[in-house]
Amino acid sequence: MRINTNYKKYTKILNRPFLYFRKSFVFRTQHGYVIIVVLILMLVLVAASYFYAGALLGELTIARNNKAASVAFSLAEAGVQEAIYRVKKSDSIERMQFALQNGFSTFTHDPVPFLTQGGYTVNIQNSGPYVATVISTGIYKTGSRTTKREIHVGIAEASSSYGGGAIFGSGGAGESIADLDFWAAAVNIFKGSIFTNRDINLKFGANLNIESAYTDPLNPKIRIDAVKYGPGDSAKVINQNSDLDCNCLIEDDGDEETLQCDPPPGCTPTKLVSSLGMPQINFDYYKTEASFHSQYYKDQNAFKIDFPKNSSKTYEGVIYVDGSLDLDYDRNMTMKGVLAASGSISITKGQLTIDLGTDGFAGIITQRDFIVGSEGNFNGHGLVYTSDRTEIDSSTNYSMNLLGGIVSRRTWFSGYRSVQITLDPAIMNDTLKDSGTTPVIEINHWEEEY
Amino acid sequence: MKKHSSFTLIEVLLAVFILEVGLLGIAGFYASSLKIIKTARNETIASNLASGILDEQLAISYDNLEIGQTEKNYTEDISSPFHDWTQKVEIRYVDANLNQQETETHMKKIVVTISWPEVNSQKSFQTASIKAEH
Amino acid sequence: MKKKFQSQKSFTLIEILTVVFLSVIIVAAGYYLYSMSYQSFKKSSASAEVTQNARIALERMTRDIRQAVEIVTVLPETPDSPVSELKFQDGHNLWPGGGGKIQYITYSLSDNNLHRKISHYAFYDVQDDWVLWSTIRGSGSHHEHPTEFFNPSDDVIKAEKITALHFWGENVININLTASDGPNTYHFETKVLGRNVQ
């Protein structure tokens, strides 16, 4: 048995102990080594790719969220607009709630028909009649993830009639700054009083003189929650007519009884006056009138086409600008009638004089702000009706002289040049007309941080 | 011996094949990853351009928002990196259910779509909002 | 008992050397593959990093500008000579959740970094009273403007690798931004309407 013998010899050799390890080693290298090596290489590649893919996925996710956030925000704004639509609609639940002191309403669209991955939920919470905060949350779905963005916007609608006051400040919409502010200002008010549902603040050596008279329907009540003074500030009220009840400015030292003025004999100071709503004004009437006079402009550029820089121009009747209007580049404008805008009216570097026109009304009316800058000049005879903020800076060359009155949500005087306001109730009433529907205004757009 | 050698050869061939598949896969992965990063960047650019166009539209008063659809190049400036991007703005009346209407409803929807060319396809991004009559 | 061993003749030194040599090559190949993929990863991650900086910069700026109460910087109406710094009154702090104080945010570019600085204005003798930047007090010929105050810690870098930043526009503010780390340069654009400013 030759084979057997060889075999025996063979195994004898292989059976030697020191060869044992090598035997198995050699056995493996020949029989699976390549596969294993390849598998190890693959493992390296897979590991590298795994981390790389992870980073790539991260980048994709960030890009996707970035996109979704942008759309979610736009949808949140859409929600606010629909809230305004509903609150204006005469037969809606939202309108009914909006009229209440503590009204509340809510609605949702999920999804929204024009963008199927998106939607929004809206809450409308009143802080007073016809004043509310809209909280709108927009959502956008990408895959399994939902991105949200939340915004808060105040809305308000003027709902009352004019109750008087050379300066009327309605405050409202629940925000922290809606007072009557006089900073380093010298304001003299004749034949009328001032009224605000919030505070009157004097700072930096402000001087406020009020000489009220019985022609003011509000006269002589002054509603104050607190009047804040500093050293160098002064405020005085002089009542010309001793037959009526009067209020004097009361200093807020915690004691409601401390008086700052000298009440005429028989005058009983009253401290608490009920709040008044923002007077309405008929914007639609003025818009129609402007079109009738061919003076409706779809934006301020259209208006400025015929009003070159550094020039003077006089207008009559009614002008209505859709959007904001800024008088700059030393434009000198005289308006015999009403200048109206759906956006803000401002005087950055220019002059504006208002006066009575042939129609019997005069003034400036805006659905947003009225801002007279330090290089702006404003004077005349008429009503100033500002749905949001009135800011008058009389610090440089000009002092301001107004015969009429200011109706605003919040008013701010700064600058040391004198400001004079003489109340003219007739022009106030003639320009405010019999009100009608006043637009809903948006105030204080605020976004949740992420 | 012969039996053993041929076995090893098959082994090697198989191993090489697996490696080949793996490497090609990785190579393909890298190629498409570059494309993916580019798309992600373009999407970011698109969402910024689109929200900008939407803001421009929101600056216009309700009455002056013209009903209809306008499609044009994002910019006519040929030196701009976005000269081959296109924008589409659609404004329509919507009712209380946000469905499109043909007559005045006192509420308008604004839909902005921005499109751009990529290597083998055309991509787009859409955003929308609403403007109500105040 | 016949023990079966899978037949193998005894190996030689050459065989061992070959195996070792091949192993080294294979490990080298493995390392090469790994480093190639790592480099590729680094390159595209650098590109993604640039884009990410631009994203953050734009998102932060647009959100702040949307809430601005007043834009202080005078912006050119056309893109011909844009400015690279924008200051505006912060609208986020005035209302819900804020303290009601008047503060200003300034975005500017310095050393390819986007800075966001928070500051306020006050008169030196009443520094707790934060006023508008345009407030003037005094009388006659002597009038004073408030000074701007800010903490160095209120000047934060929000994004890096920003090589160009341009603002312009009248009603709607246009923002053009370029982000770059050298080899990768990307342009971004957007427009923002200040909701509290109009």
Q: How far do the termini of chain B sit from each other?
A: 94 Å
The stretches of 5 or more residues of chain B where confidence is low (pLDDT under 50) are none
SSE ordering of chain B: HEEEEE
Q: Helical segment tally of chain B? A: 1
The proportion of residues forming helix of chain A, as a percent range, comes to: 10-25%
Rg of Cα set of chain A = 37 Å
Largest sheet of chain B: 5 strands, antiparallel
The total number of structural domains of chain B is 1
Number of E-type strands of chain B: 5
Largest interface: A-C, 60 and 54 residues
Distance between the termini of chain A: 89 Å
Largest sheet report of chain A: 17 strands, parallel
Q: What portion of residues of chain B is helical?
A: 40-55%
Report the structural category of chain A.
alpha/beta
Tell me, what's the shape of chain A? elongated
Number of strands of chain A: 22
Describe the protein in words:
Chain A is α/β, with parallel strands linked by helices. Chain A is built from seven helices and 22 strands. Chain A is 24% helix and 38% strand. In chain A, a hairpin with an 8-residue loop joins strand 1 (104-109) and strand 2 (118-128). Residues 19-28, 218-232 and 236-272 of chain A have low confidence and may be disordered. By secondary structure, chain B is an alpha+beta fold. Chain B has one domain (2-132). Chain B contains one helix and five strands. Chain B has one helix at 2-58, and strands at residues 68-73, 86-94, 100-101, 107-117, 122-132. In chain B, strands 1, 2, 3, 4 and 5 form a five-stranded antiparallel β-sheet that branches. In chain C, the strands form three sheets. In chain C, strands 1, 2, 3, 6 and 7 form a five-stranded antiparallel β-sheet that branches. Chain C has one domain. Chain C contains one helix and ten strands, in the order H-E-E-E-E-E-E-E-E-E-E. Chain C is elongated and about 115 Å long. Chains in contact: A-B, A-C, B-C. At the A-B interface, helix 3 and strand 22 of A face helix 1, strand 4 and strand 5 of B.
Summary tags:
heterotrimer, B: 134 residues, alpha+beta, 5-stranded antiparallel β-sheet, 29% strand, elongated, C: 198 residues
Topology, please?
The complex is a heterotrimer of chains A (450), B (134) and C (198).
Chain A: H1 2-14, H2 20-31, H3 33-88, H4 93-98, E1 104-109, E2 118-128, E3 131-142, E4 145-157, E5 167-169, E6 180-183, E7 186-190, E8 194-196, E9 200-203, E10 207-212, E11 227-228, E12 234-239, H5 283-292, E13 296-297, H6 300-304, E14 312-321, E15 325-327, E16 331-341, E17 345-355, E18 363-366, E19 370-393, E20 400-414, E21 418-423, H7 425-432, E22 440-447
Chain B: H1 2-58, E1 68-73, E2 86-94, E3 100-101, E4 107-117, E5 122-132
Antiparallel strand pairs in B: 1-2, 2-3, 2-4, 4-5
Chain C: H1 13-66, E1 86-89, E2 104-110, E3 113-122, E4 137-139, E5 142-144, E6 147-149, E7 155-159, E8 162-168, E9 173-180, E10 185-192
Antiparallel strand pairs in C: 1-2, 2-3, 3-6, 3-7, 4-5, 8-9, 9-10
